[in-house]
Write a structure and sequence with these properties.
seven-stranded mixed β-sheet; about 120 residues; four-stranded antiparallel β-sheet; mainly beta
């Protein structure tokens, strides 16, 4: 069983920066693919960025070049660095963990991009 707890959400101005953190608990977390999804009001949940157990990363086109996913296997934490956010990035951001067929979600943290 894996538990994920997000933090760092809030209000950020367009063009600013914000870092989300997700503290994970469980065993063999270094083997998991970790990452972030988001869901805006009235829209489906969509992937933002993922990082594999060997630190390969993948990003949605909409955030490529602006957002960075990273992980610290000592702290069992995954991060989402959001640079130059836009109003359309406003959403609830969910932490995600996957190993083989087992997937886990955090409860989500609200990010609002507005001036």
């Amino acid at each position: 069983q894996v538990q994920l707890v997000e933090s760092g959400g809030g209000l950020v101005q367009p063009g600013g920066s914000l870092r989300l953190s997700c503290a994970a608990s469980g065993s063999m977390l270094n083997l998991y693919t970790l990452g972030w999804y988001r869901q805006a009001p009235g829209k489906q949940r969509e992937v933002v960025g993922l990082i594999s157990s060997i630190d390969s990363t993948w990003y949605a086109d909409s955030v490529k070049g602006r957002f960075t996913v990273s992980r610290d296997n000592v702290k069992n934490t995954v991060y989402l660095q959001m640079n130059n956010p836009k109003p359309e990035d406003t959403a609830v951001y969910y932490c995600y963990a996957l190993f083989r067929t087992n997937s886990y979600w955090g409860q989500g943290t609200q990010v609002t991009v507005s001036s």
